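User: Predict the complex.
Assistant: Input components as received:
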Amino acid sequence: MFKLLCLCIFVLLGLPMQAISECDGSMVALELDRTQLNQEALRCTNTWLSYSFYNQGFNIVEAENNSTTSQLTSWTALRGGINYPLAYGLKLRGYIESGNQQGTRVIEPKYVTTDFLGTDLRLQWSTSWLKGQRIGIEAGYRTHKVPNTSYDKLQQGNILATAAPGKSLMDVSAKDSAWFVSGVFHSNITDNFSVHGGVEIRDIEVQATTTSQDSLIQSLLEIQQVPQATPWQEKHLIMNLGFDWRVFDRVELGVDYKQYNIQRMNYQIRDNFIDYNESTQLDFYLGYQIQASTIFFVHARYISNYLLGDTPALYNRRNNHTFKNPFGFITVGAQF
Amino acid sequence: MKNKILTLVFAVLMAGLSGCGGGSNPVVPTVTTNTVAGSAVKGPYQVGAVVKVYELTNGVRGATPVVEGTITDALGTYSVDIPSTATGPFEIVVLGSYIDETTGALSTTDQETSLVIADAANVPAKLSVNPIASIQAAIVKEALVANNGADVAATIQSSGTLALEAMGIPTVDVNGNAVDPVQLDLFDTTADPAVVAAFLTASAIVADVVNNGNGTVADFATNAATDVAAGNALGTAGGTTAAITTAATNVAAIDLVANVAAAVTAADPTVTATVATTAAAVTTATTTAATLTTLKGFVLSGNSFSVGGVAASVDAYGVAAAITGVAKNAVSVAMTVKDLGTGTAPNASSASTSFDFYVKDTATTRMIKGTINPVKLVADGTGIVTFTVPAAATLAWSGVTAAGTSIAAATATNLAANTIFNTDAAGVTTIDVNALLTLLQNKVNNADLNVLNIAGTFDYALGFGVNLGWANTTNDGIMNLFPTGNANVTGRAISGTITTQ
């Protein structure tokens, strides 16, 4: 998967040479998958690659939640994207990601590894509004997929089941897809400081699948209230607000705030467990521009409720309680 | 100014991250050792005796101990800390000199006794290392050598009952509680005096046998285990039948209580040794001990039983003739267990034991086995034996489903409402195996482990944690006890094949 991602990035790098050359003489902004409508971002093609990671060492104050029996031990994601102007004010934006999360549980399965793949493709149109200000709309499609993972042990109460050699007890997978539309604005307050924001509405369908060939395991899974077999729908309302500040000639600081509000339809709740429908996300970006069109950056993200809203395929009624916890990770990357 | 702002921004950023983490990090205390403590009594071991703890691998003692300790006082007190990195089962071995109950003096040779525990993390506060526990340990080790997949905890329990019976010690105390060899304590004044007396007598008999040149205490335990496993009378394996009989006679003439109490006080004047029994109780115990080399227990009356009304004979090894033509929902075992006391005469007695079962579909992977513990057994003195499952009984079970999924040992409680066992006025005990498996089905909320719900051919085994054996031709004597060592059940086993329709 990593090789495929790298190949895609290099292909993408090859596409916009003309556009990049147009931007060589100017100072581009740190665009990534953020909403940027400033002048440089409108006419410059850029590609970017980032690697995000979390491990338990980040949990430096031993964040406690005694109600959960599972712990996330590591989380990584590799993302590559492109922002490609089709015409002035019309831009094609997208990224793909490949990630992995590993966790431990007190009972079997004690070690849980989940891979996930994601895509986000959107078309952006924008126009100037007042001096130094632009408004625009975006629309597109995004997906996530959690490939099938097999488990050979399961504990329910005092029953510990182990699959026959060469067989698995259960197979788990998930996917989500969403159409979305958003309205965005951008305002240059000064030459070095701008603010931006917007509202995005996503119409999502999520399906989590847990299957077993063993009727006993099916029975145990039913007791555990595994994710429903039928898909459910979610509507996400995401409000965001942020700013970019060129602190020095080559140093840029960006801060984004996002608020997720979620509604679920055709979703079967889990008895005695609450679902989480709101999440706050804070992003801090620090970029260093080594050339006019090349920015190295570090990025830190704080999410009040794990990956709630960001990766719907990871959420289901079986693991919803883990989304009570905050989450954060560090990203390093480059934009070209 | 900009630098200060940057510093502030990153301080905020890191402060935000400090509370992050997708899950909890509960603070788990690190356990580095597990303490095992108690007393070592072959009479009481004395200061200087050593305590060594070995890991058992497939019933074989490891080459080097995982921890060593010593006896710390005249009562045989010990305490060792077993590293949590060591894995059970463990054998705790004590070697040294001890107060000889038969002489009231320090033993002239160092002798070894031991006990076996399944793990070190979950043990009672006190564990007694003694000759009865040694026999139990030897039975367990032999069982694990023969079948390294055996349930260690269940094997320890059933072996304890058989060791007690072999040495003529009650398996149930005056309060109806099961007696455990590793809880036998000469100085526990809360214990049943009759049990303590029987323990003291048995220990003294072992001493007398050893003192008369018939091997070591460890040899006695090993030979006794062999006899128990084979279903033979005590002394058969070691050729010590006569020595044991003589020892029983010798011990009956000795004031064991006084010997022990005086010797302990002599060893340490600061200790007041109160032996928790009476001379009268010892007299009763020595009378019982006189029959140690006689097979004691119960027989399967007529050496036959029936399943679903289809009769089958049982051979001397507990193997039943194949049974066919039984309705799949009528798998109820009917058997008469006859009490023969010490050979031919019934005694009024009671026992707390366990019952094991095993059913395996020969054509599929489906298997279920388990242990009901305790099962109460009462002999009324006329030969009739009644089995009951008390309210606090637990069903420990494991199995394999049709898909090949293995279920490790799980437990179910609240068996009081179930009537798995029933004994009628004539002494015919029925074991409703269908009801037993239905009980499990309901506990698990799944029918896949109710292996009898589909007709077929099944291997089965029933295991009893009491002395159950093969009757003589006139059905009034024990020819031999059914051997232990069945791969699927603990205790003395009856096994065979049944075909349902």
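Chain B has two domains: 34-289, 298-500.
Let me know if you want any component modeled separately.
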